[in-house]
Amino acid sequence: MKKMIKPLTQWYQLYARELPWRKEPTAYGVWVSEIMLQQTRVEAVKEYYIRFMQELPTIKALSEASEERLLKLWQGLGYYNRVKNMQKAAIEIMEQYQGQLPMSYEKLLKLKGIGEYTAGAISSIAFGLPEAAVDGNVLRVMTRLTADGRDITQKEVKKDFYNRIKELLQHTNPSIFNQALMELGAVICLPNGVPKCEICPLQGYCQAYQQNRMMDFPYKAPKKPRKVENRMMFFILFENKVALCKRPQKGLLSNLWELPNILLEEEISPFQQLFDWGILCGKVEPLGNAKHIFTHIQWNMEGYFVKAKALEGKQCDFVWVTEEEMRSHYALPSAFRYYMEKGWKEGKKEYEF
Ligand code: SF4
Fold it and tell me: Range of 198's domain?
């Protein structure tokens, strides 16, 4: 495998994409970009990254930011625990490491929200340490190069590739090599669809290519099906304000704002639910069905636009906010975006605001 170091790193130095976090990389910048890039496409991350670094340019600024501001900066990226954990880690870094990310894989790994991949990426890219950063992209490239049909969801398989890459890093610049492997996985050895073997710098070393079995790798054992939840969503307008409430402190989308909604375990009409909340309705219109997929759960939603006539005071957990307040101060997860947009459209027709 040592033979592939040179063609891969040369290719990277010639063809790497220009990305905002690659210009004058700092350890903080690598950290922020790697956390944002988990589960999110590069194109979508670019703007978020620039805005985040402008608003919170240091670990100190991140440690001191209000939760509302953080969630607002993250709004639309999803998986909000990522940014909450980053802030917890930033506070730890301020307390234990004088505001600088520690130059040690093991110490990085102990920080909240930093797993093996991120610790490897920061150690190697920012500090030049010989630590592997093995994510899905890297596993895809490595299993294809070696035509390895083991199940990549198994810890020992990942560990094996981690060790093999770590060994290679003894013979090259870890920052460039790791980034080159990630880049190859992102733009040449593609995840969905046919890899671009005809322009791959590693074609001559790739066993999957030689056997014409590129699509056989990586192998993943089939996953358990996602849990499906049926939910009824409400966009409730009282005068020109919409009702929002906070999600529980723990679990899915914890502590984020949401549209009032219920889990449909038994048959219930929207009117009955609104009555339970103490909402006297002037109008209830269906807003249609929508679906949102999280990692382990799928929400199948039916939504309603409600024009409230009066409030009976039972709905103590609701806050009532204007569209402007909502967009500037309340970070709502993307699961609610569909009903939020449709609801305001309906509301404007009703109230002409
Ligand atoms: S030759 Fe094809 S399958 Fe092999 S590493 Fe390159 S792009 Fe991936």
Answer: 2-216
State whether 182 and 314 are in the same domain: no
Q: Go through 140-170 and write b for each residue having 16 or more CB atoms within 10 A of its CB, e for each that does not.
A: bbbbbbbbbebebeeeebbeebbeebbebbe
CATH of the domain at 192: 1.10.340.30
pLDDT at 70: 94
Q: Is 206 in the pocket of ligand 1 (CB under 6 A)?
A: yes
Cα–Cα nearest to 107, from 91, 96, 99: 96
Residue 78: name the closest of 334, 326, 303 by CA. 334
136-150 pLDDT, tens digit each: 999 999 999 999 999
Catalytic site positions: 34
For residue 161, report the distance from its CA to the centre of ligand 1, in Å. Answer: 17
Decide: 108 in ligand 1 pocket, CB within 6 A: no
**Total domain count, the chain:** 2
231 assigned to some structural domain: yes
Q: Is the pTM of this model over 0.90?
A: no
Q: Is 69 exposed, middle or buried (0-12, 13-18, 19+ CB in 10 A)?
A: middle
